[in-house]
Specification:
By secondary structure, the chain is an all-alpha fold. Helices cover about 85% and strands about 0% of the residues. It contains 15 helices and no strands. The protein starts with a helix and ends in a 5-residue tail after the last helix.
């Protein structure tokens, strides 16, 4: 998974060398909207599986899992077809270059992202990390080749087409693997589920919470594009790679820790394991963030690649702030401890507080005409508050939960 994450990091750095800052800014802005659409058009159904699938897997109700996957996949497909058509019309009216190609590739990437999120939810419930690791490796491995080739030949739209083909390849691999996994367990004896196993999924609240969190992670590039211009969005996109590495790595921890927390809460066996499952990822994320920031600072000091940091005007302050945001991606894992105890309302509240904080700080930076570093600081403050609120809820309000 770390190797796959490194490929994703390398891909954007390679695109930054191939394309101009403005071209890269357009790419990261549209990709952000495309991936966000995967969450937006879920309407809470994928988010509901975060707790639903581990509980069904615990009772070995594989037939209900299969039925749920098929129904959600069908609904997502219909929604994305309609959204892609609407997007193509809107881009055409606004006279955007290649409106149909842009809408189709963005819609396709969004749909694949939604399907892969659904597949990841099922694989986490089954605690099958191997397949999850493999399809991330397939996706990032093909993307670094196809996106860079497309970006070199056709600019940012070509890079998006490459990303779409890579995502589709990864999805195909995931589908084959999941079918094989379910066939292996199809003969297992069904365990009688508890009454509230399927009634308390919390999908609606998680949908809103994840939508708010995703908007601050994906629409920030578009906001900076509007406020400071496409070149600044390209510079921000380079620094934001640090955030993305943090998010990818915390997802690695969440693959194991998240479903186990949910299952252990279901069997009333959570106890001291709750503290241990948080402590190790916190230390791991701290080490990663320091190493990543030091590596970026060293590359900047040595001017490697030659002229890169000057071309994108990335300061040492931006790198340090980016390292801080990387560490604060720990909030994603903390959410599982509240979800396991049916406290999705608290997860939503924490996301709302963080999103409102970031929006206010972005607005203030815009009004005052501040530089890019202040926008990165706004992200760091919002993410720090997000993690702090979740931690407080986990510990200070455990009795109420």
């Amino acid at each position: 998974m770390l190797f796959a994450s490194g490929l994703g990091f390398t891909k954007v750095l390679a695109l930054a060398q191939i394309m101009s800052p403005a071209n890269l800014g357009s790419y990261v802005s549209v990709i952000g909207v495309a991936v966000l659409s995967g969450t937006l058009l879920s309407f809470g159904q994928i988010e509901g599986t975060t707790k639903y699938y581990p509980r069904l897997w615990l009772t070995r109700d594989y037939a209900r899992i299969t039925e749920s996957v098929r129904l959600i996949a069908l609904k997502l497909g219909i929604r994305f077809v309609l959204a892609t058509l609407a997007g193509a019309v809107a881009l055409f009216l606004f006279k955007i270059d290649n409106p149909v190609l842009t809408a189709v590739t963005a819609g396709g990437i969004g749909l694949c992202s939604a399907y892969l999120a659904l597949a990841a939810s099922l694989l986490r419930a089954a605690e099958n990390a191997n397949v999850l690791q493999a399809f991330n490796l397939v996706r990032n491995g093909t993307a670094i080749l196809l996106a860079c080739l497309g970006g070199w030949m056709f600019g940012w739209t070509g890079a998006m087409v490459g990303d779409l083909v890579a995502a589709a390849s990864s999805l195909l691999y995931a589908i084959v693997s999941i079918r094989s996994l379910i066939r292996q367990h199809a003969g297992d004896q069904l365990v009688e589920p508890q009454v509230d196993t399927v009634s308390k999924t919390g999908g609606g609240k998680l949908y809103l919470a994840y939508l708010l969190s995703s908007s601050t992670q994906l629409l920030d590039r578009g906001a900076i594009n509007i406020i400071l211009g496409a070149a600044a969005a390209g510079s921000y996109g380079i620094v934001a790679l640090m955030f993305q590495v943090g998010q990818l790595v915390i997802n690695i921890f969440a693959q194991r820790a998240g479903p186990r927390v949910i299952k252990s809460a279901r069997t009333n066996a959570i106890g001291s394991g709750r503290i241990e499952s948080v402590r190790k990822p916190v230390l791991g994320m701290a080490a990663l963030s320091v190493a990543l920031a030091c590596g970026m600072l060293a590359a900047r000091a040595l001017d490697l690649p030659f002229g890169f940091f000057e071309r994108y005007q990335i300061s040492w302050e931006a790198i340090l702030l980016g390292g801080g945001v990387c560490f604060m991606q720990i909030f994603s894992l903390l959410e599982f401890h509240l979800i396991a105890h049916d406290r999705e309302k608290d997860v939503l509240l924490a996301s709302a507080i963080a999103t409102a904080t970031m929006a206010l700080l972005f607005g203030a930076a815009w009004y005052l005409g501040l530089a890019l570093e202040w926008f990165i600081l706004a992200v760091l403050v919002a993410r720090t508050l997000h993690a702090a609120v979740l931690w407080r809820m986990m510990n200070g309000r455990r009795a109420a939960g």
